UniProtKB/TrEMBL annotation:
GO terms for cellular component: cytoplasm. GO terms for biological process: amino acid activation for nonribosomal peptide biosynthetic process; secondary metabolite biosynthetic process. This is AMP-binding protein. InterPro entries: AMP-binding_CS, AMP-dep_synth/lig_dom. PROSITE patterns: AMP_BINDING.
Length: 331
């Protein structure tokens, strides 16, 4: 029985409660740059006010064309606080895909920066440069319900034309409540912001970190693309949680084995988007560590609906990992 009282709070309110608990803890790290939860909220407030002034309110789509950065995290929170619908747009997408997504979703505005504005400048959508957003003079507090939309993400289009999949704030809050209940929390935890921003797991990765008082650590693009560099970065940055698909998990573990080092701080690896299979070397890597391996499953239309955890060192881990059992309020 997975039934639990339905969420009555929005996803942003879940984050806001954590901000009140740990305002001075580190929320986001990118190289030498850090933001506390208090500073992140202040930046999100500024962005939310700018969005509200641009006409954003409940269920209004806001496209976000930014590379991974603290400003992207603040913009995601700002969109949610303004009541908008977060639509991640990768500036590296082909021009026809960008135009198709923006035409189909009809965003009120696209938040971008000077480095990426050219990728969306010709789409006809109003651009808001994040560098030009200054201190807010008003703090928007729209009346939001759990059935208001929180994000809109487009599928890859591998089986045809990409389609937009919208998620309500209530469904997202349910996912966060489940995640909070099954993972360790605390300001000593460090979560890698690895997942591609156009993949729905990135929303869980970012928001679950902030909802539990953890630090979200952002790698640069070169590190993210190189398994050896990524494995070394995970060790150097003392990353405790990694969200990544099976091929990346295997490549990182193989790089660590070849490099002759372990990842002692890595406590949880969440895999989604691929079938999870374990060969002998990958099993040994995890069995020799204290890392829990979690296999999450769910289509884009629902996000995670089932999950299976491998953490018992006294049992034989399967070669093909099952998709597990339903999460809260799923069956």
């Amino acid at each position: 029985d997975t039934a639990m009282t339905a969420a009555t709070t929005t996803a942003y309110q879940v984050i806001e409660k954590q901000i009140r608990r740990t305002p001075d803890a580190t929320a986001v790290v990118f190289g030498e740059f850090e933001l506390t939860y208090r500073q992140l909220e202040a930046r999100a407030d500024d962005i939310a006010a700018a969005l509200a002034a641009a006409g954003v309110g409940p269920d209004a789509v806001v496209a976000v064309a930014l590379s991974r950065s603290p400003d992207l995290v603040a913009t995601l929170l700002g969109v949610l606080k303004a009541g908008g619908v977060y639509l991640p747009v990768d500036p590296a997408y082909p021009a026809n895909r960008l135009e198709s997504m923006l035409h189909d979703s009809a965003p009120v505005v696209v938040v971008t920066d000077r480095a990426t504005v050219e990728s969306v400048a010709g789409t006809g959508v109003r651009c808001l440069l994040v560098e030009e957003i200054t201190t807010a003079c008003a703090n928007p507090r729209p009346s939001l319900r759990p059935d208001h939309l929180a994000y809109l993400i487009y599928t890859s289009g591998s089986t045809g034309v990409p389609k937009g999949v919208a998620m309500t704030s209530g469904a997202l809050t349910n996912l966060l409540r489940w995640h909070i209940g099954i993972t360790d929390s605390g300001t000593d935890s460090r979560v890698a912001q690895f997942t591609a921003l156009g993949f729905d797991v990135s929303v869980q990765e970012i928001l679950s970190s902030l909802a539990t008082g953890k630090s979200l650590i952002i790698p640069d693009d070169e590190t993210r693309a190189d398994p050896r560099a990524l494995a070394a970065w995970l060790r150097q940055e003392r990353i405790s949680e990694l969200f990544a698909p099976t091929p990346v998990v295997k490549a990182v573990c193989e790089a660590a084995l070849e490099g002759g080092f372990d990842l002692p701080d890595l406590r949880e690896v969440c895999q989604a988007g691929e079938a999870l299979t374990l060969d002998a070397r990958l099993k040994r890597f995890f069995l020799d560590s204290r890392t829990r391996l979690r296999n999450n499953y769910g289509p884009a239309e629902t996000h995670v609906v089932t999950s299976h955890s491998l953490h018992d060192r006294d049992t034989d881990w399967p070669t093909v990992v099952p998709i597990g059992t339903p999460i809260l309020n799923n069956h």
